Amino acid sequence: MATKSVVSGGAGFLGSHLCEALLARGDDVICLDNLETGSLDNISHLEGERFEFRNLDITGHVEIEQEIDFVFHLASPASPIDYLRLPLQTLKVGAEGTRNMLGLAKHKRARFLLASTSEVYGDPEIHPQNEEYWGHVNPIGPRGVYDEAKRYAEALTMAYHRQQGVDTCIVRIFNTYGPRMRPHDGRAIPTFLRQALQDKPITVFGEGEQTRSFCFVDDLIRGLILLADSEFHMPVNIGNPDEKTILELAEAVIAATESRSEIIHEALPVDDPQTRQPDTTRAREILGWEPTVSLAEGLRRTIELAGAEGLIGSTPG
Ligand code: UDP
Question: Where does the chain show beta strands of DSSP type E?
Fold first, then answer.
């Protein structure tokens, strides 16, 4: 019998790429999504006998009849403008949604993967960030709803593992990009690509000296599947350690699109982390995982695969 995987948030950016990769390796896939930030457009090409989509909110009871081997729990607003717009939903899906997905994994004796985030490190005081670092998060700041929801989700996952023997793993995902990001999701790469392709000003927040490390989606998904297939239970960073300032990112996007855009500066959002770079020693040692796609190559592939129309989009939202 084929391996059966459940993917919560499967119609989102990362979720849809994960569903695609699982189908490609021969799994049957059940995709759960309430389409709050996900979209049917992301999964319409996956329709077929081995793929099932269920439009449901995982903060309510989830009933799945079939046997399941893996539960990949990715459902959550993940872009700052989304979790600022949906603060209570973000907390609820991190808490109730995670509990329901852990309960499902326990009931089905499936391996559970929590999609956590580099945001658990907050505005980090150590550099690069390894998995031993406890983080520096402002619980009552605007970003706190996402950071604390994911921190709680990690605590819940470890409690189910330690107290009830659920087979769990936790991936801390660093900034990831690629086709199917929404042009208006507010994050740096889709925003800059959209602006550059229209020769509009590129909006760098603050001086642009803050850093991020950007991972191409294919590398990230390969890491997720390797972790799910391992027997490891502690958190693992997956991200590309090639760190760039946001100004360097804007310049890389201008080069990749051969744009005539100028760079302008806007106010830095509250609690915007100053630096972020994964220490990927653990991923390398435990999973043999390393990113292979450079920023220039990843931007090229994103532009080619999404096309100008996909990157510009029609309406904000
Ligand atoms: N950023 C920016 N201009 C934009 C969008 C984002 O300068 O139009 C900056 C943002 O302030 C942050 C970085 O780019 O320092 C990455 O932001 P993103 O929302 O992509 O991810 P996150 O802050 O969650 O890492």
Answer: 4-8, 28-33, 51-55, 70-73, 111-117, 168-173, 176-177, 202-205, 211-213, 215-216, 236-238, 243-245, 263-266
